[in-house]
Design brief:
Rossmann fold, Nucleotidyltransferase, domain 5, 2 domains, 8-stranded mixed beta sheet, 6-stranded mixed beta sheet, 19% strand
């Protein structure tokens, strides 16, 4: 073959340059997967002997991988003579190979089998866990090796988003956004589906077709639109301010966050979220952060959940500031059950966020009537719930299993 011609849309052309990280995010019908699949075929021919791994978080069978897409690209590009399609891999020129792996099945020892790979393509990268990303990045270490990622964003806190679109993204990364309207080969069949969603599924249209973050989980008890509608730039005069704390069980790097959220009851009898300083860290570190927030906002008390640590949680705070006022709460019901009365206040336009709290709001909008739909534990959301439970005690006492009674709550 003298020349391999592959048409590339303008949106993806920056990704043809060399870079350690290459990412494409966007909605359905953008051509992200087709671009990367074609590039893998091209690189296998241009660089005979190259080894490529296509990874995703979970891959129980090859049907869940990009293998069939790559097979179709080999056929459509007319390069079948260069490849041998085998049961579990695709063999390329000069003993090159394209293999398919689920990262969830790997550990620090088994991941070493991928050290010779020149390209790692992360499919459906929005589902990749922090553990998997930490295993993969130092493993792909061949000279000039690259890590590619394609994804439809779910949350700003997704690990791939944090890495490639976050505040501290690598300097040697090229990341593009691509949607249906940048795809010159967007098919009529998908256009019909897009128009239907535009007319009939407005809440999720932007996520599905424009690659915007998930508005909320299906069946979520919080509504992102309500949060946005009631958002404020400044808080009114406060009648009471609390710091809600939901400490993680452990303080390892892989542990959940220690939830630390500042909330208040205004003189107008409405609730306000004032700050979110949740973070990882040792018990001494989270206690120090909670007390710093207490001082900054001149709070009335720190509300702590003591199910996991018992007296140790209270002792941790007192070791930093003896005698500080602490309200201890103990969970007797599931997280989503405790959260429902608070989400009802949001539904009645009785709580405002003063500013934007990206990670907290993402957790809230993944809390459903049957439980938390995200990864890990919703510690930020739990901390918020504890604070508002203490700020609106009458609402909680009046709540009944089948219907919430909102009388005598003391709200306007």
């Amino acid at each position: 073959m003298s020349k391999l011609k592959i048409e590339t849309s303008k949106q993806f052309q920056p990704l043809l340059a060399a870079a350690r990280y290459k990412g494409a995010h966007g909605g359905r019908g953008s051509g992200k997967s087709h671009f990367f699949a074609e590039n893998i075929i091209a690189q296998s021919i241009i660089n005979p002997g190259i080894r490529v791994v296509c990874v995703r978080e979970v891959q129980k069978t090859l049907k869940e991988s990009a293998k069939k897409l790559l097979e179709d690209k080999i056929e459509s590009l007319g390069v079948s003579s260069y490849f041998e399609v085998q049961n579990d891999r695709i063999k390329g020129p000069n003993d090159g190979a394209i293999i398919f792996q689920g990262l969830q099945d790997h550990n620090a020892e088994s991941i070493k089998s991928l050290e010779g790979m020149s390209i790692a393509w992360i499919e459906e990268a929005q589902t990749l866990s922090k553990r998997s990303l930490e295993l993969l990045r130092p493993t792909i270490r061949a000279p000039g090796s690259e890590i590619w990622a394609s994804w439809n964003p779910r949350l700003a806190s997704d690990e791939i988003d944090t890495l490639l679109r976050g505040e501290h993204s690598p300097s040697n990364a090229i990341v593009v956004q691509a949607n249906y309207d940048t795809n010159p080969w967007f098919p009529k069949e998908l256009e019909d589906e897009r128009v239907w969603d535009y007319d009939n599924n407005p809440d999720r249209y932007a996520h599905i077709w424009l690659g915007e973050y998930e508005p909320q989980a299906i069946g979520a008890i919080w509504n992102r639109q309500k949060i946005n509608e009631n958002r404020r730039k400044e808080a009114p005069e406060m009648a009471r301010i609390l710091v809600g704390v939901d400490p993680a069980v452990t303080d390892k790097e892989t542990s959940d966050n220690h939830g630390i959220v500042v909330a208040g009851l205004g003189r107008d009898q409405r609730g306000y979220v004032l700050d979110d300083v949740s973070s990882h860290g040792t018990p001494h570190e989270w206690a120090t952060k909670a007390i710093t927030a207490y001082d900054k906002w001149e709070a009335d008390a720190i509300v702590i959940e003591v199910n996991q640590g018992g007296d140790m949680v209270k002792h941790t705070i007192n070791s930093v500031r003896p005698g500080i006022r602490i309200v201890e709460v103990r969970a007797t019901r599931g997280k989503h059950v405790r959260a429902e009365p608070i989400s009802a206040l949001y539904a009645m336009d009785q709580i405002s966020h003063v500013g934007t709290f990206r990670d907290l709001e993402s957790e809230m909008c993944l809390m459903t009537a049957s439980g938390y739909d995200g990864q890990g534990s919703p510690d930020r959301c739990d901390a918020l719930v504890w604070a508002f439970t203490e700020l609106f005690p009458k609402l909680i006492k009046k709540a009944v299993p089948k219907a919430l009674n909102y009388s005598n709550v003391g709200i306007i």
